[in-house]
Amino acid sequence: MLRTLLRRRKKALSSEDVTVADQPQVRRAVTAAALGNTMEWFDFGVYAYLAGTMGKIFFPTSSPGAQVVSTFATFAAAFLVRPLGGLVFGPLGDRIGRQKVLAATMIMMAASTFAVGFLPSYASVGFLAPLLLLVCRLVQGFSTGGEYAGATTYIAEYAPDKRRGFLGSWLDFGTFVGYALGSGLVTVLTLTLGPQGLEDWGWRIPFFIAGPLGLIGLYMRLKLEETPAFKKEAAYAASEAGAAEDGAAADPHDEAAATGRGHLKEIFTRHWHAVLICMGLVLLYNVTNYMVTSYLPTCMTVTLGEDDTTAQLLVLGTMLLVVLTITTVGHTSDRWGRRPVFLAGSVALVALAIPAFLLIREGGILLPAVGCAVLGLLLVCFAGTAASTLPALFPTRLRYGALSIAFNISVSLFGGTTPLFTSALVEATGNDMVPAYYLMVAGVIGFVSTLFLHETAGKPLRGSGPMVETADEADRLVARSRTAAGRQARDLWIRLRHPWEHRPPRDHRD
Question: Contact, 234 vs 464, CB < 8 A?
Fold first, then answer.
């Protein structure tokens, strides 16, 4: 009797606890999620490369430096509403499902980006032009508040535990492919149309392309199924609701979790440590990301006086380097762990930020190219591991909401404002090394956050059972779990029956 109770105390896995990944569905999930990020960052790449041009179109009465600051202020405004989008879309994704919310965010992103191409210039309608640009950016920001967190959650809940790093890295692969496509298109337009042609009408072309891209992404997301983890959580919530209707005593905490009530309170009271870790890692990743992708092109042209085409090609080459290495970093994190990759990247960022910017400001091609490559390799350390690390911080029933809130608060305060703060500080101080100092601070914060991060590589997500690739792997996992549970129960039984035989030796000084 006692032995039976002890065995139940450490329950072994059953076949129902282990989920076997549907490989075709995994590939569709990764592709559809990555395409949404491609769409989002196509817009960011276009906006970053057109910052100088759009400053002339929408803020023509300002000085060149003030035009850049004004353009980046409009860019940063979109990030101020991202937490609001996270508050709306995140908890909604935990209640109605990840797939439905991701389809909605895709529609909003595509429509708002497409609309920018139709905006009139300041010369045509005056102050209404930058106001309309601001409205479009706010809609983009609101929709992206639920995009990245939802996409990372979706991929993480579909990926086998041992390959989550590799499959998650494809999400940010889509990010930098989108940026490279957007920035590459602007570079081609600059070469073919010239600065004047780009300013007259050519700047609209990249935004028009966003419409068809969005329709393709929407079609793919509508074809997706809900994640296995969410289905199991929804079934559990339904059973809890049924028990409550039948008059059975239900735990108030479980009832609130099943209906979605009390999620925000629980996130900030029971999971505040995970929220802080998430914000620190997101700060590290996004400050580096926006420094390279959004600020660096303008830094080299406006601040350092580089030729537009040279600066654009250098940053484009950096993005291609990230694209070529990001899945390798994701695969490496599956083997070595997430913490070692983040720790190494944080230390390297603090050590190499100043040398990288010293090389960039030397001028020419070779030395700036080396400096840009250093920043790209630092960025890929965080980009290749973020999508697999962040969702693992939170349990399934509030993963989308908690990640949306923590991610977007950090991005809004520190990531999206990086181009604005950096350009304003450089303008105010005249010190073109400010970006390097900014990166060093981000590296220190990221290092401290990583010290408190628990390793999750190869382990199931919180609140979910194991996810494996094949049925044979599931059978082996269940068998090992039963064997381990039996041994623990046997050892505990022996200790209870013969406690004097298993006491540690007394210290000779006692």
Answer: no
